[in-house]
Amino acid sequence: MDSAYASASSPTQQNNQLGDAFLEIAPISSTALPSPSWDVFINHCGIDVKYTIATTIHNTLTRAGLRVFLDRKSLQVGDVIPTKIQDAMSTASLHVAIFSSNYARSPWCLAELSFILKTGTRIIPLFFHVDPSDLRRVDQGKGIYADAFIQHENKGRYTSEKLQEWKMALQIVSFHSGCVVNNN
């Protein structure tokens, strides 16, 4: 996948190629599964990828006939956001977690990831300009994700147990087979 992404001539073409390649590695048929509310839930950090790769994956999988939850496309006026998102995570057959540079700075992203792992359903990680080792090295105090956890600890808004739960979730998913996307 890295070579297809790197050989594209424009960011739009890169995103389209990545979306098509993602469809190939995430085969799922909405007719072959029980009927959950959603086939796929996309966990992501909005400021990094909402309008790029997250939307590309959403659009590609939707064109393939899947019901894909992406907050900006799936939430409606009047929805209770935490409830709607938790329902979508609970009923999705597949979860895509897009790890990007600011992902670990978002308590929302980390809480979603922890919840997703507790559902026991399939999760495909996409490491977008992030190395999987960044997720593993949080406890060692190394890498951009470790820096994010230092900020969480300094703010004091979350218990040490909650922070440890989030670190463990990152470590677990870092060993899942997925995709690494970068500029190289």
From TrEMBL:
Keywords recorded for this protein, A-Z: Hydrolase, NAD
Keyword Nucleotidyltransferase tagged: no
Family matches, as Gene3D superfamilies: Toll/interleukin-1 receptor homology (TIR) domain
EC number(s) on file: 3.2.2.6
Pfam annotation, one family: TIR
Domain TIR: 36-174
One annotated GO molecular function: NAD+ nucleosidase activity, cyclic ADP-ribose generating
Biological-process GO terms, alphabetical: signal transduction
Lineage top rank: taxon: Eukaryota
Annotated signal peptide: none
Catalytic activity, as annotated: NAD(+) + H2O = ADP-D-ribose + nicotinamide + H(+)
PANTHER family in alphabetical order: TIR DOMAIN-CONTAINING PROTEIN, TMV RESISTANCE PROTEIN N-LIKE
The protein, known as: ADP-ribosyl cyclase/cyclic ADP-ribose hydrolase
